[in-house]
Amino acid sequence: MALIFLAFFGTLGVSDEMFPQNYDWRYRVISNLLSPRDNPGHYWLPACGTILAAVLMLPFAGYLRRNLEIASPRAARVSGGALIAGIVALICACLVVPQHVHDVLGIRRLHELIARSAAGFMAIGMLAACWCAWKGFRKNLLDGRLFWTWSLVTLLPLAGIFLSECLLVATRLNPAWAMPIRSVLRHSVVWHLGFWEWSGSAAVFVFLCAAVFLMPAANGLGRPRRDHCNLCSEEMP
């Protein structure tokens, strides 16, 4: 977890300090730091850091699947598979740099498409994990704090993104009706995608931390491991 934090947030923070213009994470998207157009001198640093963080996240897919199978095997497989797809898409988004001049594979904004796909797959994986945590909590198989922590860091950012996207679509479909709402919220951080990108990144990190510290270890069969007393052969309850 420490290496993931340093690789992702550390390199983004260093690149923020060296950004040619004033970078405000509340209003600017993360892709600005990875863009050769916006950050020509140091775009490679956050790209490499994000790729390293994504590679370090790969083992979590199998870790979650093994530990969540006790609650819901099918949802656990969905969670692990979606996380792998999201991580692979995140790596591809770092390799396909953001630019709006040339088409890549016939797509003008391929980076944005891959990045949104990565976020979508990770959201599916996190939601499936929340479902497993809920079932495990009801069956007394998993810690209730795991479910509440995962739900908090998953549902709040998704609800915020959903509402902001709905308002954005509404301003385009019915400008007269949505213009007063837009005029009120346009200067608020909740209106900008950058705020939700950074919030979602922090939420994913907290999600992984909760998986490490609040989820019981599992043996090779995917069942919770029981602790043994060091002084006797009897199993601890």
What does the model show?
The protein has 237 residues and is mainly α. It has one domain. Helices cover 68% and strands 0% of the residues. The C terminus is likely disordered.
Number of strands: 0
Helix tally equals 8
Helicity, as a percent range:
55-70%
Largest sheet, strands/sense/barrel? none
Give the averaged pLDDT, no decimals: 82
Structural class: mainly alpha
Q: How far is the N terminus from the C terminus?
A: 30 Å
Features:
237 residues, mainly alpha, 8 helices, 68% helix, disordered C terminus
Q: Concise description?
A:
This protein has 237 residues and is an all-alpha fold. The chain has helices at 2-17, 31-34, 44-68, 73-95, 110-138, 144-173, 175-185, 193-214.
Explain the layout of strands and helices.
Layout: H1 2-17, H2 31-34, H3 44-68, H4 73-95, H5 110-138, H6 144-173, H7 175-185, H8 193-214
Helix pairs in contact: 1-3, 3-4, 4-5, 5-6, 6-7, 6-8
